[in-house]
Amino acid sequence: TITVPEVLTKDRMPLDIRVSISFQIEPRADTDNRPESFSQRKRFDGVITGAYPVYEDSVYKAVYKVSKGGWRQATLRALDAAVRDVVQEYDLDELYDIPEPIPGKSPVMIPDLERSIEERVARAAVAWGVKVNHVDIVTVKMPEEIWQKVLAWWQKKLEVKIALQDLEKQTFILD
């Protein structure tokens, strides 16, 4: 789990996004299910057997095809970049179901964001022998002043709803 700080939305609103990821060295069965893996040049052809069989080449890529930080750090850096890339495609009101949304725009569901982020990280990670299992957005925190405005919008919407209900009750009693 990492926190990606100050992720900018399309309308330049900074968000802090806490996201978790599950990943592993690509299992042999997954490598076998990728047709492109058969056309790629492999340094090693052997298989490391056991409970979780993997190709020696996947382990080689995880060790030697990434920067100094290793395959775990490379995957987390790819996650950070993917979160930033995906979120910058949306305005703030598309990421939150704000009571007064812009006409023609509907909120993006968190699972859609997770899926987009997961796909981007998975495409990159396969180059260093890693399989991404799952991405989960844990929290999305907006700046305090924006959060206060959203709370005020929700409160106003609730007050209007209550006032309309009271008015309907009064109208019913007068009839």
What report would you give on this structure?
Helices cover 50% and strands 20% of the residues. It has 7 helices and 5 strands; from the N terminus they run ββααββααααβα. The chain has a 3-stranded antiparallel sheet with strand order 1-2-5. Helix 4 packs across helix 6. The longest helix is centred in the C-terminal third of the chain and has 31 residues, at 144-174.
Task: Characterize this entry briefly.
The chain is α+β, with helices and mostly antiparallel strands and 175 residues long.
Helix count, per DSSP? 7
The profile of the biggest β sheet is: 3 strands, antiparallel
Give start-end ranges of low-pLDDT stretches.
Answer: none
Structural class assignment: alpha+beta
Number of strands: 5
Mean pLDDT: 85
| Portion of residues within helices | 40-55%
Radius of gyration: 23 Å
What gap, in angstroms, lies between the N and C termini?
Answer: 60 Å
Which geometry do the CA atoms define? elongated
H/E topology pattern: EEHHEEHHHHEH
- Portion of residues in beta strands equals 15-25%
Strands of the widest sheet, in order across it, are: 1-2-5
Summary keywords:
175 residues; alpha+beta; three-stranded antiparallel beta sheet; two-stranded antiparallel ribbon; 50% helix; elongated
